[in-house]
Specification:
Layout: E1 13-15, E2 18-20, E3 26-30, H1 37-50, E4 54-56, H2 74-87, E5 90-94, H3 101-107, E6 110-113, H4 121-127, E7 134-137, H5 144-157, E8 162-166, H6 184-191, E9 196-198, H7 200-204, H8 207-219, E10 224-228, H9 247-260
Parallel strand pairs: 3-4, 3-10, 4-5, 5-6, 6-7, 7-8, 8-9, 9-10
Antiparallel strand pairs: 1-2
Helix pairs in contact: 1-2, 1-9, 4-5, 8-9
The chain binds phosphoenolpyruvate and manganese (II) ion (MN).
Length: 264
């Protein structure tokens, strides 16, 4: 079902008037984690003002260590839904377990499966039973075939609304947090009809590289970008402040991107 062989035309996912996978670029921006109502409201305002369409933010955070901040939970879903509605943005948030799929889908327009959960088959199966669009992140050590098979689980369950997200893979390089595999973008387009989104924030882990790799992703054919932005990155509650753009950088990035491709 994920293969282009059996579905030659690109899949376009339409969410409340925003078409993902068509000729326009979708921009998802926001903090790594939802922290407070004030934080997410202000960032939503800035994403909208810059020309973005989707507000990102994690209420449930998959942290490497059990003692790190794990996200604010269901309250965060409510804060983000409210900010999205107020500022006219779609919302995307990560869901980590099958039990939380329904409550996340109640509050968000798009559900994100994180890199660490790409092969959480129970989660993928559950996501196949609903119609809410899913942004599936590539596992950081997964092949294209494994990635497409993970998407297949969701599609096979009956949910056709899947986007693929390249977010960097693990290589021998340590200067960057991950290695953004730009080649994945044209390869996934060749093999599959599903929209392809690029995540240069996690793909590089370094703010100063995000802008360039966003532009490179668009040149490689990405249908959209997911970018971390924070009003106070140095004091963000996850370690992802170092890869988060400042609001003025985010606004400038969108201005530049508009010269490369029309935004949604
Ligand atoms: C995130 O989007 O904040 C995140 C945790 O992403 P990934 O699963 O790609 O690490
Ligand atoms: Mn993050």
């Amino acid at each position: 079902l994920a293969s282009r062989d059996f579905h030659p035309d690109n899949t376009v996912i339409n969410i409340k008037g925003v078409s993902i996978g068509g000729s326009e670029l979708v921009i998802m921006g926001g903090p790594c984690a939802v922290e407070s109502p004030e934080q997410i409201d202000e960032i939503a305002r800035l994403v909208k003002a810059a020309g973005g369409q989707v507000l990102r933010g994690g209420a449930f955070k998959p942290r490497t260590g059990p003692y790190s901040f794990q996200g604010v939970g269901v309250e965060g879903l409510e804060m983000m839904a409210e900010a999205g509605k107020k500022h006219g943005l779609l919302t995307i948030t990560e869901v980590m377990t099958p039990e939380y799929v329904d409550v996340c889908a109640e509050h968000a327009d798009i559900l994100q499966v994180g890199t660490r959960n790409m092969q959480n088959f129970d989660l993928l199966r559950k996501l196949g039973t609903i119609q809410t669009p899913v942004l599936l992140k590539r596992g950081f050590s997964s092949t294209y075939d494994e990635f497409l098979n993970a998407a297949e689980y969701i599609l096979a369950g009956g949910n056709p609304n899947v986007m693929l997200c390249e977010r960097g893979i693990r290589t021998f390089e340590t200067y960057t947090r991950n290695t953004l595999d730009l080649t994945a973008i044209p390869v996934l387009h060749q093999l599959s009809h599903l929209p392809v989104i690029s995540d240069p924030s996690h793909g590089t882990g370094r703010r100063e590289l995000v802008e360039t790799m966003c532009k490179a992703s668009v040149a490689a054919g990405a249908d959209g970008l997911i970018v971390e932005m924070h009003t106070d990155p140095d004091n963000s509650m996850t370690g992802d402040g170092v890869q988060s753009l400042f609001p003025d950088q985010f606004a400038k990035l969108l201005q530049d991107l508009e010269k490369l491709a029309p935004l949604c």
